[in-house]
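Quarterly update from the structural biology core.
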Amino acid sequence: MKKNEGITLIVLVITIILLLILAGVTIGQLTGNGLFDKVKLAKKKSDEAQAKENATLGDYENEIDKYVSGNRDSITLTAEQYDELINKTIVIDIIAPNTSGWLKVADYPDGYNINNCSVIGCRIYSELWDKQWYVVPGATSTNWALNITMREDGIYLYLWGQSVEAVKNQPGKIILTKF
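Predicted structure, tokenized:
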């Protein structure tokens, strides 16, 4: 007696019918619940937000252009703008801490506080690596971390990793500006 190995035509037709039913249900779910409409709406909102952001950035650039001309390497200020900048900016001498973590390095000078000024940056000389470290708020890396922040009671410097050895007990300067 010969035994048939394989599928019959009836099993094949039933499988195709089941696949068609599943495809129909899936397509119905995708189109019936408004998924495509939601995607179109999300794209429209994203485009509107991008246009608004571009307009805001353009306004910022126009405002900056009122005060500064030149490029990143060369800035031209009027005498009045220079005097205004000098009157708002102050330099504080500091000594970098010799341990890791957040450590207070300076008190606020008279007339400056957390509510009326911001840190432009900090510069510390490293004898170990024979270079100057320029610290701006948020500057970190995987091997070293130098960061600076303002708190109610003063200005803090964060050292971690190789930065501790690089700048510990070294003189530096913090530059503050009023706004």
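Residues 9-67 form one domain.
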